[in-house]
Here is the input.
Amino acid sequence: MKEDAVAFAVADADYVLSPPHLYIPADTSRYDAWHHRVKRIVDLVLSSLALVVLAPAMGIIALIIKRSSPGPVLFVQERLGRDGQPFRFYKFRSMKHDSDDAIHRQFAAMFINGDSEGCADQNSGDQVFKIKRDPRVTAIGAFLRRTSLDELPQLLNIVKGDMSLVGPRPPIAYEIENYQPWHMERLKAVPGLTGLWQVSGRSSVAFEDMVRLDIRYINTWSLWQDLVILLKTLPVVVRGTGGY
Here is the structure.
């Protein structure tokens, strides 16, 4: 199921050289046509149904979080959406309340700048580009992250129109301080709950390969592709691939 993170670079398109990187710029024409309105309708219908079906489970998760550690149930953070527009991003809280974000800021800089040694799992040597033993994470939070249940409140973001079911993951504002100009191409689409990155190796995919996957998604977007990604996401979540 795992896709090659760089094989799509041979797709039919004009290359743009931005030393030292070779990439294909994002073409947003599909997002500006009637297809985008259809995508929005599908997002609204499916996310609304999911909220109704999952409401009991989300209520139980909220209760467990509230009883397990002090602090709010939801973690609300500013993220950047399409064209860099900021919005309030929702997750179930998986960390201790008011945790310092210095650890993640440092990690994000290393990840984006390609410091694979700093991001690798020191015990296994695997190239896993995620903080695997974050001391800020609570016991229930570790489970929520591993199963991706912490992401369920983003269904509210989808209903509001901040996000889509499928698309590039929305960055935190401080992350783009480390972006190169061509990395900004991934912000030309509405961000998603899942995407090509999640079904192509997730946290084992390097940042620049993730950006190329996002550009590939934008350039080849279709409702059928969204359906395929959604179907591939389920087994990835069930196995907990790349979730920490």
Remarks:
- The radius of gyration is 18 Å.
- Residues 7-239 form one domain.
- The longest helix spans residues 34-68.
- Residues 1-20, 121-129 have pLDDT under 50 and may be disordered.
